[in-house]
Structure to design on (953 residues):
């Protein structure tokens, strides 16, 4: 039955394609004839060689740098039988962006998520979040244990020869990318330009005022010409940057309607304010290699490899104040209207607040590698290719950290704080604590024994409400996959069918994840002293928030020296009884937290797949040609998951039949019409949901996070329709318009519930206060949970297959060089693209990270000896769901624009210099809750500058 339905859909697409052809052919005929007379289209199969030939034929224009990259990418798009946009670096040269994520956002329909810290770079394709895309390496799966997919900002660009963003795929390509496939290409050893190139660069960060070095070596050599070749690319990339942040984590509703659906008369005020900042130092060593052997015209053997080792240390300090039940709060101004969301008090004084000085050191190691072996035999009629592929990635996160805590107490704790959120203007923000907190808690006084069962907190004996807390979550993740595939193609010399292709693949994939919490059991607390205060992550760099908020000064707020404290209190004297405790890598006692057992698991998947595909290549007339492919892919998936302390294995099996049709109509050499219908899927990954119920309470007792578990999720699929019209009006230039529609079914989304009776989670009755679920009464400490305060935010997440939703929109892209103009104007050119995305659903959930409008533009001027480039990126506002206790409730991101500049100087044919400036307007990232004046976050990144030199031997 399923096969019949899919077949009917395929026939519908074919009929629609023929109808479109019949309708537009007469209208385009005259335009095609006039355009064809002036268009000179290079052979798409020639790729960059065609562009180089053109450059050699002109005395005024040498095609290199930005123009070369854009025109190589355009040649790839023009020749493709699927819908793809590409980034092509010159040879294996440097992509002129801060990282690969920044480069990918230049592609139409691609958006970068800047809310993610540490610049690891997550991207969205056509509105779907980063985990909906699938990253490939040379057409094969690339392992990544992180749910947000491969971290593009962790690797040098020189190890890749190009990147393809595949938006409508064929049946012969791997599944897993619901929004698209991102294929990282390392390049062919035989086709690579022979020689050796060395580049050295340095990156200067405005906030840290530090320079981070980097460099790369690329080489290719034909050991036996046209028979045996080898290539390699190796790069080192470091960074030393800072991210400053002013955050209102949660708001309290102090007045308003009793019904949660009417918020117009609500009055909200800040409940918890954090002043976070991070200083990140990282090192990345990456490389790729290729060995290719062609002993005869019919036989080719190839080995391709890729490896990346990324390590970072992030010093994170967070000064936090919050309203407690014994606090006194006074508004310092009148409520400001927030439209349909009521009113917001932005300025207030809190007397007797809770104060936390929270300092952490996050050490992350991210390693990923892949090796591919391929053997191909071909003659005039047949091609047989066998491929073996193995990939593995690991991610280890060690979080050392300590907190000095002064809680609110009856009669007052002696502190007060004045706060103004600025209502969306950072320069108006104020944070002033009285008295200053240079020594919040006396660390030289006596502390009691660590409080069981996590043993994280000790209470001071000499001051009410004062305590010292140690240890945070550590996490280890790994993923690996072994795949074996066989592809067979039969070519035809005439007729509408150019080839019939079939193939089969077997994939064996496994995932493991473990989490633990470090505590203070057995720690030498007598060695604590007040000398551990005063540590500053600013390190002589720019002032907090780059001096943009005169009313905030963190210089005397007593950050803790994490490294020194750990060294002083270790080694520990023992380990508690029970197999839940062990000595962790930081030397402290670690504990398998009972609230996170659902995140400790082993998962395995086996995928059996096969496809059949018809390649079409037919001249319909002297000027009209149709090409493309029709195919279907079948896959059977088997998954088995076992969580810690859960004896039974949770199994799930399913199968999918995925048809595809890609038809390209060419009208002469300048007009191309593409039509596509594809079905894609994304398997529910264990690292994107919990298989067991989990409950967690943050250390302040103000945020509760509950996950109800989802072990039986179906895979979710998408039916995709794409149509584009491309006009290649001149060599290296084009104008294109594309429309798309994605209907996603069985989406595994997360919704929030707020049962008035509390749902049996142990925190009593709950109430919906202006869209935020909160406790009605305080709850005492219970088991491994600390005490939960009255009015604490309770995020109860239900993950299940939701109703279908639709993403639709269009893309416009214009790429032009002006080489037809007289010198010096013939060196100008550029590219601009615009994407519009709409989200429609009948369900109640919201999908995050969707920007309705995205604009990218590149303008360049290049001549033989130098080049200049300006890049502009704009992304309209988008929604973000809560991601944990540190982010608070759901929020939205304001629209943001960024401008980057770069230049190059070719001193000789072999020696060149480069200079880049990123975020030259010093744009901020701003998040808000409901209305733009109800501020949630100001992020300050600062500007970044880079200079480099490259020499080719």
């Amino acid at each position: 039955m399923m096969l019949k339905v899919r077949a009917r859909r395929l026939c519908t697409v074919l009929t629609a394609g023929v109808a479109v052809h019949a309708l537009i052919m007469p209208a385009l005929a005259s335009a095609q004839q006039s355009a064809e007379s002036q268009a000179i289209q290079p052979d798409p199969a020639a790729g960059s060689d065609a562009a180089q030939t053109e450059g050699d034929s002109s005395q005024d224009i040498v095609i290199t740098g930005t123009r070369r990259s854009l025109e190589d990418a355009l040649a790839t798009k023009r020749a493709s039988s699927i819908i793809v946009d590409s980034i092509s670096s010159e040879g294996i040269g440097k992509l002129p962006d801060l990282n690969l994520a920044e480069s990918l956002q230049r592609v139409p329909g691609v958006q970068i998520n800047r809310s993610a810290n540490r610049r690891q770079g997550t991207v969205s394709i056509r509105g779907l979040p980063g985990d909906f895309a699938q990253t490939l390496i040379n057409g094969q799966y690339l392992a990544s244990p992180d749910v947000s997919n491969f971290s593009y900002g962790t690797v040098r660009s020189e190890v890749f020869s190009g990147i393809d963003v595949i938006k409508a795929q064929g049946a012969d390509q791997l599944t897993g990318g619901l929004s698209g496939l991102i294929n990282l290409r390392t390049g062919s050893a035989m086709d690579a330009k022979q020689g050796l190139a060395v580049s050295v660069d340095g990156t200067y960060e405005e906030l840290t005022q530090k320079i981070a070095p980097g460099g790369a070596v690329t080489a290719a050599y034909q050991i036996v010409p046209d028979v045996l070749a080898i290539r390699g690319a190796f790069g080192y990339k470091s960074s030393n940057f800072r991210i400053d942040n002013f955050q209102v984590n949660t708001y309290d509703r102090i007045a308003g309607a009793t019904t949660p659906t009417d918020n117009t008369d609500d009055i909200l005020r800040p409940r918890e304010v954090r002043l976070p900042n991070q200083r990140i130092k990282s090192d990345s060593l990456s490389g790729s290699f290729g060995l290719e052997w062609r002993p005869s015209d019919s036989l080719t053997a190839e080995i391709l490899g890729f490896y990346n080792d990324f390590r970072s240390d992030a010093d994170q300090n967070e000064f936090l104040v919050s309203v407690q039940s014994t606090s006194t709060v006074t508004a310092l101004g009148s409520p400001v209207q927030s439209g349909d969301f009521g009113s917001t008090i932005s300025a207030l004084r809190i007397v007797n607040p809770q104060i936390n000085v929270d300092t952490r050191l996050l050490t992350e190691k991210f390693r990923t590698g892949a090796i591919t072996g391929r053997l191909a035999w071909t003659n005039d009629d047949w091609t047989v290719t066998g491929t073996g592929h193995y990939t593995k990635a690991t991610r280890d996160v060690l979080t050392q950290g300590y907190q000095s805590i002064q809680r609110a107490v009856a009669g007052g704790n002696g502190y007060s704080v004045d706060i103004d959120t600025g209502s969306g203007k950072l320069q108006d923000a104020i944070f002033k604590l009285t008295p200053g907190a240079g020594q919040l808690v006396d660390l030289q006084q006596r502390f009691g024994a660590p409080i069981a069962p996590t043993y994280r907190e000790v209470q001071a004996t000499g001051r009410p409400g004062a305590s010292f807390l140690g240890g945070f979550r550590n996490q280890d993740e790994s993923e690996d996959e072994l795949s074996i595939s066989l592809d067979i193609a039969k070519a035809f010399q005439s007729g509408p069918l150019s080839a019939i292709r079939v193939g089969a693949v077997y994939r064996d994939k496994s995932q493991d994840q473990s989490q633990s919490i470090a505590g203070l059991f057995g720690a030498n607390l007598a060695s604590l002293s007040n000398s551990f205060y005063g540590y500053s992550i600013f390190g002589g760099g720019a002032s907090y928030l780059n001096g943009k908020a005169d009313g905030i000064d963190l210089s005397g707020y007593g950050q803790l020296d994490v490294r020194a404290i750990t060294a002083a209190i270790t080694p520990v004297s023992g380990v508690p009884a029970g197999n839940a405790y062990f000595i962790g890598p930081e030397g402290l006692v670690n504990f398998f937290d009972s609230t996170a057992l659902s995140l400790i698991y082993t998962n395995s998947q086996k995928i059996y797949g096969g496809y059949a595909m018809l390649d079409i290549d037919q001249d319909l007339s002297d000027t009209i040609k149709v090409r493309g492919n029709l195919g279907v892919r079948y896959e059977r998936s088997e998954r088995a998951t076992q969580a810690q302390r859960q004896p039974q294995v949770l199994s799930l099996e399913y199968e999918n039949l995925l048809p595809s049709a890609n038809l390209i109509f060419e009208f002469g050499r300048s007009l191309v019409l593409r039509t596509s219908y594809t079905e894609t899927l994304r398997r529910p990954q264990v690292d994107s949901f919990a298989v067991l119920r989990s409950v967690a309470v943050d250390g302040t007792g103000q945020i509760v996070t509950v996950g109800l578990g989802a072990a039986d999720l179906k895979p979710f699929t998408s039916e995709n329709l794409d149509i584009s019209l491309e006009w290649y009006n001149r060599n290296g230039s084009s104008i294109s318009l594309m429309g798309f529609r994605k209907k996603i079914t069985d989406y595994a989304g997360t919704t929030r519930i707020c049962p008035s009776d509390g749902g049996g989670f142990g925190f009593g009755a709950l109430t919906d206060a202006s869209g935020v679920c909160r406790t009605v009464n305080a709850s005492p400490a219970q088991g491994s949970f600390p005490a939960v305060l009255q009015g604490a935010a309770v995020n109860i997440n239900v993950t299940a297959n939701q109703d279908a939703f639709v993403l639709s929109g269009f893309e416009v892209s214009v790429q032009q060089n002006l080489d037809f103009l007289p010198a010096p104007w013939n060196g100008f050119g550029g590219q601009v693209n615009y994407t519009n995305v709409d989200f429609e659903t009948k369900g109640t959930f919201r999908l995050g990270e969707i920007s309705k409008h995205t604009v990218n533009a590149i303008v360049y001027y290049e001549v033989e000896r130098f080049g200049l480039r300006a890049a502009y990126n704009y992304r309209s506002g988008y929604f973000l769901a809560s991601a944990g206790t540190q982010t608070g409730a759901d929020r939205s991101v304001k629209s943001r624009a960024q401008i980057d500049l770069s230049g190059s100087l070719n001193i000789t044919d072999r020696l060149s210099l480069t200079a880049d400036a990123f975020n030259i307007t010093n744009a901020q990232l701003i998040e808000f809750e409901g209305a733009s004046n109800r501020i949630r976050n100001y992020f300050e990144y600062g500007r970044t500058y880079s200079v480099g030199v490259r020499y080719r031997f």
Notes: The chain is about 10% helix and 50% strand. The mean pLDDT is 85.
